[in-house]
Design goal:
By secondary structure, this protein is α/β, with parallel strands linked by helices. It has one domain: Alpha-Beta Complex (Spore Coat Polysaccharide Biosynthesis Protein SpsA, Chain A), CATH 3.90.550. Helices cover about 35% and strands about 20% of the residues. It is built from 10 helices and 14 strands. The protein has a 5-stranded mixed β-sheet with strand order 3-2-1-7-11. Strands 4-5-6 form a 3-stranded antiparallel β-sheet. Strand 9 and strand 10 (about 135-140) form a beta hairpin. Helix 5 crosses helix 8 (about 210-225).
Length: about 290
């Protein structure tokens, strides 16, 4: 009897300032994602009226407030974070990570694939064929190190109860990151076992954390890669603009000239503050060629 194929969901956490980029991503999921894969976009309830326009048979809009526990909430005129009745106020950077770690509370698919709103897909693809090898799921490792990665790794070790010795620092942060639902639930339990408190309270004790580092280290150093149903992968599925100046049209054209057939998407970070209309036509051309 053939094994049952796992179900996939693409998950994006976004907010109003990123709406135009997220709108472009949603358009690309309509064109490029296979019909059996849903795209969930998670936003603050105050932004729901704006993002509801993106909802379709393939794209579903969820709210942060429906995912996190009742004791975490926003108050008017406090834009830098969220109030928590069990921890210090939670800054937006950390809250976004808590949302990803909590998404299994409302998303039922077996595998959650996290994709930021500054990514746009450029060709049709099946998520399973891109991220699964036999029955194992790709665990992305990225060949990049920084002081932030070191800080995030140290926080993950403490949270997960992993001894420092003989544990190399590996970077699991990137675009299109896939997690198994069962491993996320095991991660919650591990955090509570090690820290003797609710897992959200444990995470909120750290200022510098990365959800991708926590999950990656859980898989590799607690569960074991094979036992967790993963394999190590290093492909560049999403072409990133990190190394390119995008301050004029010529540089934008040069960047898009580096996109290869192996890439299924492109990432132009919101920090560049490049208006979507300055490169939108590039995606229209790629969709005409590929879709």
């Amino acid at each position: 009897m053939a094994p049952v194929k796992p179900s996939f969901a693409v998950v994006t956490v976004s907010y109003a300032p990123d709406f135009e980029r997220c709108k472009l991503l949603a358009e690309s999921t309509e064109k490029c994602l296979s019909d059996n894969t849903k795209h969930y976009i998670i936003v603050d309830r105050k932004d729901l009226f704006l993002f509801n326009s993106l909802q379709s048979l393939k794209v579903k809009i969820l709210t942060v407030e429906d995912i996190l526990p009742w004791w975490i909430f926003r108050i008017p005129l406090f834009s830098k974070g969220w109030i928590s009745l069990r921890t210090l106020p939670i800054r937006n950077w950390v809250l976004q990570q808590l949302v990803k770690l909590s998404a299994v509370n409302v998303i039922d698919e077996d595998i959650l694939v996290f994709c930021d709103s500054d990514v746009t897909f450029i060709r049709p693809f099946d998520v399973a064929s891109v991220l699964l090898k036999e029955e194992c799921l790709a665990l992305l490792r990225v060949d990049f190190q920084s002081q932030d990665i070191l800080k995030w790794a140290n926080a993950a070790k403490q949270l997960l109860g992993i001894p420092d010795k003989n544990v190399p620092v590996v970077n699991y942060v990137g675009n299109l990151i896939a997690w198994r639902r069962e491993n996320i639930l095991k991660l919650h339990s591990r955090l509570e076992e090690v820290n003797r408190t609710h897992w959200i309270q444990a995470v909120c004790k750290h200022w510098n954390i990365s959800e991708y580092m926590i999950y990656g280290m859980m898989v590799e150093h607690v569960l074991g890669i094979e036992n967790a149903g993963h394999f190590i992968a290093t492909p560049e599925l999403i072409k990133s603009a990190w190394a390119f100046p995008l301050d004029n049209q010529k540089n934008i054209d040069n960047f898009f000239g580096t996109v290869q057939e192996s890439h299924i998407g492109v990432m132009i970070h919101s920090k560049y503050k490049v208006p979507v209309e300055s490169y939108r036509y590039k995606f229209d051309l790629l969709w005409q060629q590929n879709c």
